[in-house]
Structures are given as C-alpha cells and as structure tokens.
Amino acid sequence: MWYDIQTDHVDLFISARPASSRNEIAGVFDDTLKVKVKAPAVEGAANKELVKFLAKLFKVPKSEVRFVSGETSKRKRIRFPKSEKLMRFIEDTTS
C-alpha cells in the first residue's frame, strides 16, 4: 500500500525522480507513488521542490509536510496533515 491513513495524518510512500522535465505525479508503481520533480538531487534541492509541489497539490502548509524516513534516498515516507484534497486524491487514485 502506498499510503497509511491515521486519525490526524496521512503518510505517503513516495518514489522521487529528480531532474525531470516538470513536476508531476507519474502514478503508483510497486506500492509507491512515483513523483517527478524538476530540481536535481543536489544539496536537498529535490526534497525542497518535492515538498513545495506536494503541499501546493494537496493544499496543506509546507511547514506541516514532514519526512518520516528516506530523506536521503529515492523511496521516502512523507507525513501530511489530513486534507480534503489529499483524501480525494487517494480515493481517485485507488479506484
């Protein structure tokens, strides 16, 4: 499962693909959400771009998006506060 829904937050398991031509969700593969980001994987630039992109997409504050694990690897576990937009995205993606 590429997500873990809790009472007050949602964890997403993300496979980040830095240095892509644009920021986009590429789909779900091997129990991870594949996300492409424009920034290169240099000095945390890709992670910053990833947080910025996902926070805007799910309409949550960037300050509330937290890395649970994998900050220095391609497979990451990122925690988000529950939002209507995020829950709708999960529902639409899994159906």
Topology:
Layout lengths: L2 E3 L3 E9 L6 E6 L2 E5 L8 H14 L7 E4 L5 E7 L2 H11 L1
Parallel strand pairs: 2-4
Antiparallel strand pairs: 1-2, 2-6, 3-4, 5-6
Structural class per helix/strand content?
Answer: alpha+beta
What is the mean pLDDT? 96
CATH superfamily: YggU-like
Output the number of helix runs: 2
User: Any idea what the shape is?
Assistant: globular
Cα-atom radius of gyration:
12 Å
CATH topology title: Conserved Hypothetical Protein Mth637, Chain: A
Ends apart, CA distance between termini: 13 Å
Architecture (CATH level 2) name: 2-Layer Sandwich
Ranges where pLDDT stays below 50 over 5 or more residues in a row are none
**Main β-sheet, in a few words?**
6 strands, mixed
Q: Would you report the number of β strands? A: 6
Order of helices and strands: EEEEHEEH
The number of distinct structural domains comes to 1
Helix proportion of residues, in percent? 25-40%
**How much strand content do the residues show?**
35-45%
**Which CATH C-level class is it?**
Alpha Beta
Please explain how this structure is put together.
- By secondary structure, this protein is of the alpha+beta class.
- The chain has a single domain (3-94), classed as Conserved Hypothetical Protein Mth637, Chain: A (2-Layer Sandwich), CATH 3.30.1200.
- It is built from two helices and six strands; from the N terminus they run ββββαββα.
- The protein has helices spanning 45-58, 84-94, and strands at 3-5, 9-17, 24-29, 32-36, 66-69, 75-81.
- Strands 1, 2, 3, 4, 5 and 6 form a six-stranded mixed sheet that branches.
- The longest helix has 14 residues, at 45-58.
- The protein is globular.
- The model has no long low-confidence stretch (mean pLDDT 96).
